Amino acid sequence: xxxxxxxxxxxxxxxxxxxxxxxxxxxxxxxxxxxxxxxxxxxxxxxxxxxxxxxxxxxxxxxxxxxxxxxxxxxxxxxxxxxxxxxxxxxxxxxxxxxxxxxxxxxxxxxxxxxxxxxxxxxxxxxxxxxxxxxxxxxxxxxxxxxxxxxxxxxxxxxxxxxxxxxxxxxxxxxxxxxxxxxxxxxxxxxxxxxxxxxxxxxxxxxxxxxxxxxxxxxxxxxxxxxxxxxxxxxxxxxxxxxxxxxxxxxxxxxxxxxxxxxxxxxxx
Length: 269
Known about the structure:
By secondary structure, the chain is α/β, with parallel strands linked by helices. It has helices at residues 23-33, 41-49, 68-73, 84-91, 111-115, 130-142, 160-165, 185-190, 207-213, 231-236, 254-264; strands at 3-5, 35-39, 54-60, 79-82, 100-104, 120-124, 147-150, 175-177, 194-198, 205-206, 218-222, 239-242. Helix 6 runs parallel beside helix 11. The chain is elongated. 39% of the residues are buried.
């Protein structure tokens, strides 16, 4: 095993871990460099279990024993060790969830291959809050969604916060970033999916009414926080669906709404 003790925050060998709190920088840099950060020992283990390959490990010395089995499996991957203060200086925040790893980003999966055999698909339009993206993936994994598609401007499912909030379930649910939006909804329709927008419109049907129809293949589109679904997307879907609200509440947070909808619209046969 290759262990390296860090003495300086300027060490070029750990450039993957610098400025992790700069969201704008990291969401541009990480996809461009073909990498992402797995934060916490649990997330790291889930990434490796999904077959993702590590570039390096990064941790305080007290976590070495806890991850000794992982290091033994990847003897050629460097392990960088430093004091808590030095690691915080490098990353911009205090590490308290064990180790981090810089991981190789998996190659994109062709859309048709991703959807082969899928019956329930979630489509995220321009959801930029990484906490919501991660929470939606966690619900998708728990409630039987076969694949998640994200629009070109949607937040990165492999951004550190998304991965952490999802508890690593972003590695379990197949996903892809669409290139032609909302044009790629036609690909779904061509594969036999009913495409429904979860949106409060005048003609939206209640969630239980759509569930009663039991569509064989269903793609549920979730809109961005605040502004909701774009007019172009609403024009491209087959129908709109809503969760009936009580007590004067007009809507739920998109992550909460996704969990309700995923459960109600699950296949029953």
